[in-house]
Amino acid sequence: MNKPNILLITSDQQHWNTIGAFNKEILTPNLDRLVAEGTTFTRAYCPNPTCTPTRASIITGQYPSQHGAWTLGTKLLEDRHTVGEDFLNAGYRTALIGKAHFQPLRGNEEYSSLESYPILQDLDYWRKFNGPFYGFDHVELARNHTNEAHVGQHYAIWMEEKGCANWREYFLPPTGTMDRSIQHTWPIPEKYHYNTWIAERTNAMLDRYKEEDESFFLWASFFDPHPDYLVPEPWDTMYDPDQLTIPAVTPGEHEKNPPHFQLTQMDNPDFTPWKESGNGIHGYHSHVGLSEEERKQRVATYYGMISLMDKYIGVILDKLDELGLADNTIVVFTTDHGHFFGQHGLQAKGGFHYEDLIKLPNIVRYPGKVPAGRISDSIQSLVDLAPTFLSFSGIPIPHAMTGVDQKQVWLGHQERARDHAICEFHHEPTTIHQKTYVDARYKLTVYYNQTYGELFDLQEDPGEINNLWDDPASRDLKSRLLLQYIWAELGKESLPMPRIWGA
After folding, report:
1. CA–CA gap between residue 237 and residue 254 (Å, rounded)
2. What's 195's DSSP letter?
3. Which of 166, 229, 435, 492 has CA 20 to 30 A from 394's CA?
4. The whole model's pTM is what?
5. What pLDDT, in 10s, does the model give residues 388-425?
6. How many beta carbons lie within 10 A of that of residue 455, not counting itself?
7. What backbone torsions phi and psi does residue 15 show, to the nearest 5 degrees?
8. How far apart are CA 257 and CA 267, in angstroms?
């Protein structure tokens, strides 16, 4: 078998500094194992800090402004080209186990959705459907985070097959009967947790590929540590909240920031000017009011969720070893975007492009080829995954992909393949529309139809406390970065085909 296999392992909404090898307050022995056996990229970024846009970028190799799934509640249109199609055409098998989130929870006559109610919970349908789906010839899906009522699809079928006839008791109404007052300790037994399901079903696919001697592109897509903050025993008490570093706002840090930052620190802010579509707007609400006890407990539970997930990532890595596949499999671990758990006084996500939200954990292992134990500050983007996977597999990269081929960087033969990353957040048609340009030292954020913005010097101000946007001494710097941002936008335009003649 000469063609390398690809195993992509992702979490959901994981802060970049939650790997035990770099943060001694958290235990992640299996991610630490990947760090020791591969290269860790400390400057990896998402193309959008929400699920659907970024996940669609992973499989298209394009930015959200190009593939069209521009925010939550939209979908990646079925006519979009995906990297799975390229792998299938090259003789690979392709599979996705876990969270897809390429489509919204509601569809309509014009835009149907397989990930929507009521089909989401039509288990008879899912017993018969395993693909094809966006270039994956086999999928096993679920949509809920922790105890959300969105549970269904293949995960619910699996729970029933495992003898968990009362599975609805662990999920919220209207699907289930779980008490909404339960906090932090999820009563579901670990053997029925979706981490167990993802690892078991991923390993079943690995067994199949090994038996049939087939090359594969396999995505194991975990749901944690996306809130709600819930984890089963004994992981709920693994961390002492009083022994953890709990991030908090720096007094006065939002005084120079755009108005929506300041409003988040008020008890009853008015975000009416930002509301345009009639749908919810993530992060545009008050972020204050949590007790110190609750803030501490959230961090402890968040860490417990990561450690539990790490256990099952280890189950998958052990299967690769058992099957003798590890040496010929490129393993990439990352997440779709980051998370706030108190940094800058914020919780979860929204239109706040701090490193906490847009920078990612990112590890690549390919034994004997990708340097082991290496730490690299080379800038990466999730939009680069598709073209880089194809490059390693010797498959032509479609001209329309706008991600960068990082193969030589991953191999350690080249220092860097890009000098910047761009992160988009287009959450309402006009009122919430921003883009961030980040290079080796600086970060610039611009807003549609607004004169305010953000400019941070990540070298001198790594905590991003001092916004230099209106600083007179930084006027020339801002002008230069604005020009570089415009060049970057021009440079990422999609070219579906090369120019083949003069006219």
Report:
1. 34
2. H
3. 492
4. 0.97
5. 999 999 999 999 999 999 999 999 999 999 999 999 99
6. 21
7. -65, 145
8. 18
